[in-house]
Design a protein that fits this description.
The complex is a heterodimer. Chain A contains 12 helices and 2 strands. By secondary structure, chain A is mainly alpha-helical. Chain A has one domain. A two-stranded antiparallel sheet of chain A has the order 1-2. In chain A, helix 3 (80-96) packs parallel to helix 9 (242-266) and helix 4 (124-145) packs antiparallel against helix 5. Chain A is globular, with a radius of gyration of 22 Å. By secondary structure, chain B is α+β, with helices and mostly antiparallel strands. The radius of gyration of chain B is 27 Å and the shape is elongated. The chains are: A mainly alpha, B alpha+beta. Chain A binds chain B through residues 34, 37-42, 208, 318-319, 321-323, and chain B through 36, 39, 42-43, 45-47, 49-50, 53-54, 57, 67-70, 72.
């Protein structure tokens, strides 16, 4: 009982620490530095401690100090309760959805069974979708409660865009559920041990559809119409300052990580290395004894999983700094007239193939 | 004395500067309307830049051959061209005195009213010469137009190449007295040569070393 409690707390602390302590600040740096490198610039490199700049890695630290010392401002006429609540509603789903994403398989070490997922729900994907939809409320509330025209427009756009893409996103994932026959993410991950059974090979269309819809859900370029800074200042978070402002940013970055996690679990073979099965790895680690070899296998799987996540983050950042922003009507047209029919056709063809097999 | 303006832009020949063929039809082809190939093409370009620059960051090429041309300002500085107009300075003769004769032309022409001169006379050997008792330049008003340099008949005020450290927290510090403006003539040789070249008119004669008034009639 105590061992299980320790295991659960350790897993929660690990995921929370990796997300809030590593990914959230590092992604701010990555976004600046990667865009700079892609555009032949240098990027942020001035913050230093005793002359060591560490290629700009100290900028997240200085940003945090700056943000924490700023005035927390609530505009006159704003709805104080919802204005304060909105960033929390945005940030919490981004953190919670990672609870059902497995970052490793199931292992038996010293007679104790370890399942490397915080909550092994049998409706894992539904849980993710339920909480991802809650993030919409944060955005819409922020836009509405700020008592500002730009924020209001941003909130309206966010409501329309996120609700439309929710449909296509939900339908794009049905194919993968039909192929693997399960909603439990640990099972879907375990079924992808064979390289040729990875989701991206079984459902290539579903992969593209899901990635597109997920980026649109996350309101990032090229779908950043709710915060389009060239049109409506900063959109739904125009009136936010200090820590609340950075909470929206953190929510956005953590959603990037979460999307990478979901894509890795569903399409990129979860924690499995390509071409190398777990038995092969175990025999490779055989020199360390029966228990330690499993520990080594577990560490390899975790590293593989996070390497895939980092690759997906890199891909999303590249997309973000390559494509220009869509117009509002183009976003709606893409969502309803193109992505939705394609995902329906994808479901139909997948169903036929599954039935005839 | 003849100074010819060079109209070519950099070292690029003019025929190379012509724009490439412009596609007039704005209708997208089917291949472009599929959008995904175009996304991949765009991402190929950005990823190519990313990879080349990352290699450049990890193994920086020697010399100035790098792809990123950003100047790391306080550590690196550009070599500024001779035509650059930095802060105006007074030319100091070899004997340590100022070359200025306090004629007041620069004070008169200054569009920002930044210069104020108090003239005086002093002995130089057996002759008398005029000199500025006080020469004050208000750097908070100076617009770096270079008219004082152009109008000066004695090459006594020129625009230097200094542009660093001119900002101050107090306006009082921006009023430069004569002592702060004097710069030895040896350091300004190139600029004086350049000034002669660009403002050299047919009736203009190079002033002699001693400060006698130059007349056209000879």
């Amino acid at each position: 009982m105590i061992a299980e409690l320790i295991e659960a707390v350790a897993k929660i602390l690990f995921i929370f620490g990796v997300n809030m302590g590593f990914f959230a600040p590092i992604l701010g740096w990555v976004e600046r530095k990667q865009s700079a490198v892609m555009q032949d610039r240098v990027g942020a490199n001035r913050a230093d401690i005793l002359g060591f700049t560490l290629i700009g890695l100290l900028h997240p630290l200085t940003d945090t100090i700056k943000i924490l010392t700023k005035e927390d401002f609530i505009p006159a006429g704003a709805n104080k309760l919802f204005h304060t609540l909105a960033p929390f509603i945005s940030l919490t789903p981004a953190l919670i959805t990672f609870a059902v994403i497995p970052f490793g398989g199931q292992y038996e070490i010293f007679g104790h069974r370890i399942n490397l997922v915080i909550a092994d729900l049998d409706v894992g994907i539904l849980f993710i979708f339920a909480f991802a939809s809650l993030a919409t409320y944060g955005t819409v509330l922020a836009g509405w409660s700020s008592n500002n025209n730009w924020s209001f427009l941003g909130g309206l756009r966010a409501a329309a865009q996120m609700l439309s893409y929710e449909v296509a996103m939900g339908l794009s994932i049905i194919g993968i559920i039909m192929v693997y026959g399960s909603l439990r993410l640990t099972e879907i991950g375990a079924m992808q041990e064979n390289f040729l059974r990875w989701g991206i090979f079984l459902q290539p269309v579903g992969f593209i559809l899901f990635l597109t819809c997920a980026i649109a859900e996350n309101k990032r370029v090229p779908f950043d119409i709710p915060e389009a800074e060239t049109e409506i200042v900063a959109g739904y978070f125009t009136e936010y300052s200090s820590m609340k402002f950075i909470m929206f940013w953190m929510a956005e970055f953590l959603e990037v990580v979460t999307i990478s996690g979901i894509v890795t679990t569903l399409f990129l073979g979860a924690w499995h290395l390509p071409f190398v099965s777990s038995e092969k790895l175990l025999s490779l680690f055989g020199f360390a004894g029966p228990n330690l070899s499993i520990v080594l296998l577990m560490l390899t799987n975790i590293v593989t999983f996070f390497a895939k996540i980092i690759f997906m983050i890199w891909l999303q950042m590249t997309i973000r700094w390559t494509l220009p922003r869509f117009r509002y009507d183009q976003i709606m047209k893409l969502g309803w007239k193109i992505l939705l029919p394609i995902s329906l056709i994808n479901i139909f063809i997948t169903g036929l193939v599954v039935l005839l097999k | 004395m003849n100074y010819e303006l060079n109209y070519t832009i950099g070292s690029i020949p003019l025929d190379k500067l012509k724009p490439k063929k412009v596609r007039k039809n704005i209708e997208l082809t089917l291949w472009e309307r599929l959008y995904i190939p175009e996304i991949i093409r765009g991402m190929y370009i950005t990823t190519r830049h990313f990879t080349i620059n990352m290699i450049g960051f990890v193994f920086p090429p020697k010399g100035k051959k790098r792809k990123i041309f950003t100047v790391y300002y306080p550590e690196e500085k550009l070599t500024i061209p001779i035509a650059y107009r930095g802060r105006p300075v007074l030319v100091q003769r070899e004997d340590g005195k100022e070359k200025c004769v306090a004629c007041g032309l620069c004070e008169r022409i200054c569009p920002a009213l930044a210069i104020s001169i108090v003239g005086g006379e002093r002995h130089r050997g057996n002759d008398m010469e005029r000199y500025p008792v006080a020469y004050t330049l208000d750097m908070s008003r100076c617009v770096y137009c270079g008219l004082c340099e152009e109008v000066c008949p004695h090459e006594a005020i020129v625009m230097s190449d200094e542009y660093i450290g001119l900002a101050e927290y107090d306006r009082k510090n921006m009023i430069y007295p004569k002592e702060k403006l004097l710069v030895p003539v040896a350091r300004l040789k190139d600029r004086i040569e350049y000034v002669r070249k660009i403002y050299g008119k047919n009736n203009y004669q190079i002033p002699s070393t001693n400060n006698q008034i130059i007349t056209k009639s000879q």
